[in-house]
Amino acid sequence: MLFKSPEELVVKDETINFSKYFNRIKSNWMWIVLITVIFATLAFLKSPISTNTYSATSTLMIDATPPKPISLQNLPNYDPTQKEFYATQYALLRSNVIAAKVIENLDLTNNPDFMGEPKSTHSSLKARIKQWLIDFKQPSDGSVAVAQSLTHTTPSELKALQIFAKSLLITPIDKTQLVMITYTSKDPSLAANIANAVGQAYINYYVDINSETNKKASEWLTSRLTELKQQLNDSEKKLTDYLAKEQLVNTIAVDELANSELINLTNRLAAITDKRVQTEALYTTLRGSRHLSYNQIDAISEISNHPQIRDITNAETDAENVVAELSKRYGPKHEKMLEAESQLAAIRARKDRMLKRLVEGVKKELESNQRQEREIEAEIKKKKEEFQSLAVKKVHYQALQQDVDTNKQLLKTFLERQKATIATEDYKDSIAHFTDYALKAYPSGPNIKKNVLIASIVGLMLSLCALFAIQFFDTTVESSEEFERYFPLFSLGNIPFIKRLAKKKIPIDEDTLSAKEKPMFFEGIRNVRTALNLAITDDQRTVMITSSLAKEGKTTLATNLASSLAQSEKVALVQVDLHNQGTALSAPQGLSEILTGKAMLSDVMAKSNQNNLVMIPAGEPVADPQELLSSPRFTALLNELKQQFGKVIIDTPASLITSDAFIVAKAADVILLTVAANKTKRNDVEQTLHKFNAYELNVDGVVVNKVL
């Protein structure tokens, strides 16, 4: 055989096939149109008797950053650049907060036109039913009662909120900051009043928020100022106590005085150190020259440059010059010579005494310089210690002073903020204002065209949804292609559905088909014949045709397939439904008589309009058909037919109704399964295949019948 085995076929993944839905719509278009027309008609008939309604519209401009004449830093800020901002404002306009304010301000709970209360006793029953429906829609878990107890909302207020929400429409104007508030009511004046009241309630909502924020800010600032004043007093007291404890007046003056004294001592130390170094150098020179004569000491530059020594040295030089001049004119014994020499000797004696005193003075001066240097160093050390102690105190002082300054600045800031808050507490500010008030309400209903259009759309959508739901949950097979998606079987083709003959209990053949129906129907039969001839070998001559359930068209397929095969070879059509004679091949004698020995094969063969086609009817019904079909006579009959005919087509009962088909299948060469499109469920096909597999029989192919 050329049929693909189950191992060679791969079941495709189940995907959505939209053509099935379109086919469903196409086949049920009259129902869709009928339901749509019914809905439209009901809407058309109901609209004239409906109460007239009126709609009024006011317009608000929402601006999160309006120009402010004064700075209100403590009021809430809004960012209009955020996309959620305007969506939030529209939701707020629809909220129960705004609705409750409007209902309260206009006393709508006591307005019969708004509440829809009956004006006569005739409509009281209708009102009670409506109220019962409203109550029925509420959750039954007690959540409503809890909400009412928490929000103190009465049943009439809840009803008013529901009515209000149904009639309110918030419509933003694209690419603007404007939003339209539309309210629909039976009373035109009430519609205009509510449209304006919603906008005003929204404006007042933000005014109240700003006022409440200002009030809370003022209260908080007042309490905070008291705390800050106490903090300032405490910090100032700590600073004063510390200054008194450390006996400090002003750390800045003390710092300057300490710095000045330290600089002065440092300069004095540097000067005395220089002087001590010079004196020490001179004294060291003198000590190193203590064995020299005074004349030699006088030759030392440090000594000779001394002012007193320099003066007396000059006097000595002058006296020596005088003696030298006089010695040129007078003798050593001359009175003037003696006087000049005496004077020179006196100068030299005085110089010697001066040099001696100078050496002793240098020593004393050195000792004095050293003593002063030590005293200044000790004073500097003492001042440094005092300065370090003062620095520690200064750090503590600065911390206390900074605390005082911070508290003063903070107190000043809060005082300024409090003044600004007090100055602006009467300022009324909101993020919205009216651009247009609702001055007049216009008729808005009933809109017959709109109602009819909406009803038509609803009817159309409901019918389509119903069809889609039916199709979605439909487990039948529509075509051979769909069959192969679910089952690993080879499909020989599709047989089209003849709707005109669907409910008539007559066989579909060339005599019952119209001229328009014949080409399409017989084209499907020829496709099945061609696929069958290509799929089987010459030795496979007996072809059994069965179905899962009754009335799937297996007899129609067997009859027309046999007729089509008879165009090229001899064909025998055998009906083995021994439970009843059926309608296709009714005859007084048939297969049952052959198997019971009451007739011969030649006695029951019936000629058809085609020379190559011979038909063997089922014959009279028997009590136990399975016993006859299991007998050797049936096998012998098939072998005899195979010798005489090129093809033997066997029409068997439905497989899920009787077991006859499984008995016949053991003697047949080819097993074909007929599946009725849009009727046979996949579960039925699965059960049929499971039964064949249980008997170790393989279904070789399938033909999908009655395809739309």
TrEMBL record:
InterPro entries: AAA_dom, Bact_polysacc_biosynth/exp, LPS_length_determ_N, P-loop_NTPase, Wzc-like_C. Residues 14-106 form the Polysaccharide chain length determinant N-terminal domain. It comes from the Bacteria. The keyword Hydrolase does not apply. Its EC number is 2.7.10.2. It is found in: Cell inner membrane. GO terms for cellular component: plasma membrane. The keyword ATP-binding applies. It holds the Pfam family Wzz. This is non-specific protein-tyrosine kinase.
